[in-house]
Amino acid sequence: MKYLELVNVYEALAGTAKRLEKTKHLSEFLKRTDKGEIQQVMLLLQGLVYPPWDERKLGVADRLVIKAINIASGIDSDKIEHEWKKTGDLGLVAENLMGKKKQVTLFSRELSVKDVFLNLRKLSEAEGQGSVDTKTKLIAELLSSSSPLEARYIIRTVLNDLRIGLGDGTIRDAIVWAFFGLEIGFELDKKGNLVTENRELYNQCVELVQSAYDMTNDFSKIAANGKEGLENIGIEIFEPIKVMLFPKAKGIQDAFETVGRPAAFEYKYDGFRMQIHKQEDKIIIFTRNLENVTAQFPEVVQFVRRNVAGHNFIIDGEAVGFDPKTGKYLPFQSISQRIKRKYDIDRMSKEFPVELNIFDVIMHDGKNLIKTPFQQRRWVLEKIVNPIEKKIILSKQIITDKDEEADKFYQEALKQGFEGIMGKSLDGIYKPGKRVGYGIKIKPTMESLDLVIVQAEWGEGKRSNWLTSYTVACQDDEGELIEIGKVGSGLKELDEEGLSFGQVTEMLKPLKTKEEGKTIFVRPKIIIEVVYEEIQKSTTYTSGFALRFPRILRLRDDKGLDEISTISQVQELYDMQKGKGNA
Ligand code: AMP
Fold it and tell me: What is the distance in A from the centroid of ligand 1 to the CA of 246?
């Protein structure tokens, strides 16, 4: 396939904000793509050359791209930078400048998808000395044989910024349409709405593709397997599956209603999720977001190697930090720095040690345990794990059908500083990704805060036209505004989906009082409701507090500035956390 054909699809996808239209373009394209090429095409559509969880990344810096454009076009780097400042998009710069190419290159042939794909793979494989030169040459080579429009997308791909607005949900639906469209017989009506005679069947097909995606996190594999291969897609060691997630219960009684009686209850450890894969001697640790963090946690690799029996397995657990002197568990933030750390790893593991709490097993010695009831999976864990305190343990668990017993366990957990407890259905399967009735978390409810935006920062890349990060403030007892954190998540990219960055940006722009670099200061007018995981003490903000994982819930344009949350409320909520007030 010519690369230009793929580029035309990028253009079509970028040309509409409507999800169903995108799905239609994509499904039609998938239908006409040869089986032999579909895997490469599917990855490139996502701006990838390996599945998203693969360690090998394109990872090319802006500077390197500027150099490559310079080599391919003969145009000065200064001029390239100047153009870049104007648009903020090196893809567009490459497109414009390659059109005015000074050097005459001889097109030996048109670029194919395969050419681009293989060159990009070489790019991600270049390492060590001389790799910058190699990478620059590879990109320049591609640019030299590309048309201006192709150049735009090549550059955007290497910079990991395709700007075609293609989410996982759309890709999944496009695969459903491509695989099952004829059987289900659905179409778009004149208004662009989806019409299907058999909604139930349609939903089943969506579920089938979603479940294959939950197991593989790789659309290219699903597309390559084709419709017939869909049912056979299963778990493979070293390919992370989506972890099982849990909704929140209102309380013990509500938890029993969801997971049934009797149920298992476990401490809810405040660390970070690790999905650990082992095959013979090799062990890989994936985070909840499918990042490979094996190198950062050599001690966890050791604990697992020595204390979990089996030739191959996938286990699920939570790594929790503790104070090496007192042995006391520490909140997640105390070890969060280890996740990205690339040097001094051994020192870090001594200063910020973790204990691995294992709570599930997904596969063991070739046996897929996804459909095995939870209680039996726990028995497998009890057999294969040799627990050692402060290294590797099984999550503390009780099984009960009594509210009082579960509640006692809950209070005990809070008193010891845990986040709460998890309730798990004894016969529940391991359901990747879904927040449905197989398990539930119980933790103290956090009240939301109403805060006012006082500063905002312009975003980067495809978000550069929006203000995407907002500094928010509460009020002190005199009504003075004091900052309590920065929040950006919770807003949508598309207006149709809810309160969006675009809308908030438009509200903030007229309120600007001053500008400093990427930050604008605004008059305190826009009040938002913010939820969060935890309130922490902090010296970063004038209130002396900060919010962990804050998320914007909605606009509170019904509230005045004097009604925003007060520092006393914040202090009260802080005291209530983690068993201080309500244990
Ligand atoms: P949350 O992050 O508040 O949605 O809570 C769910 C998370 O709690 C899971 O993703 C795990 O990382 C973590 N967790 C801690 N202890 C357990 C446990 N015993 N069972 C399952 N998940 C746990």
Answer: 7
Residues of the chain with pLDDT below 70 are 100-109, 192, 333, 434-436, 445-446, 558, 578-583
Q: What is the pLDDT of residue 582?
A: 35
How far apart CA 57 and CA 41 sit, in angstroms, is 17
Which of 242, 266, 269 is the best mutation target for the ligand 1 pocket, counting ligand atoms within 8 Å of the beta carbon and taking the most? 269
- pLDDT value for 434: 66
Our answer on whether the CB atom of 318 is closer than 6 Å to any ligand 1 atom is yes
The domain defined by 252-442 folds into D-amino Acid Aminotransferase; Chain A, domain 1 (3.30.470)
Q: Which atom of ligand 1 is nearest to the CA of 243?
A: 10
Opening angle at CA 504, ends 333 and 511, nearest 5: 105
- Relative to beta strand 420-425, strand 519-522 is unpaired
State if residue 422 touches ligand 1 by the CB under 6 angstroms criterion. Answer: yes
User: What is the pTM assigned to this prediction?
Assistant: 0.76
449-577 fold? OB fold (Dihydrolipoamide Acetyltransferase, E2P) (2.40.50)
Atom from ligand 1 closest to the CA of residue 248: 4
* Distance (Å) of CA 303 to CA 297, 298, 356, 390: 10, 9, 8, 10
Which two structure tokens, joined as six digits, stand for 482? 């004091």
Please state whether the peptide bond connecting residue 262 to the residue before it is cis, i.e. omega within 30 degrees of 0.
Answer: yes
pLDDT computed for residue 333 by the predictor: 67
Q: Which of 67, 135, 268, 443 is catalytic?
A: 268
Question: 344: which 2 tokens?
Answer: 């001094």
Model confidence over 226-275: pLDDT tens digits? 999 998 898 999 999 998 988 878 789 999 999 999 999 999 998 889 99
Residues with Cβ within 8 Å of 235's Cβ and at least 6 positions away in sequence, in order, are 215, 241, 314, 362, 363, 368, 370
| CATH 1.20.1050.10 for domain 47-158 | no
Write out the two tokens for 17. 């904000």
The residue ranges of every structural domain in the chain are: 47-158, 252-442, 449-577
326 Cβ neighbours under 8 A, 6+ residues apart: none
What residues have CB less than 8 Å from 104, skipping those under 6 apart?
none
Establish whether residue 396 lines the binding site of ligand 1, counting it when its CB lies within 6 angstroms of any ligand atom: no
Ligand 1 center to 431 CA (angstroms): 14
Concerning whether 227 is annotated as a catalytic residue, the answer is: no
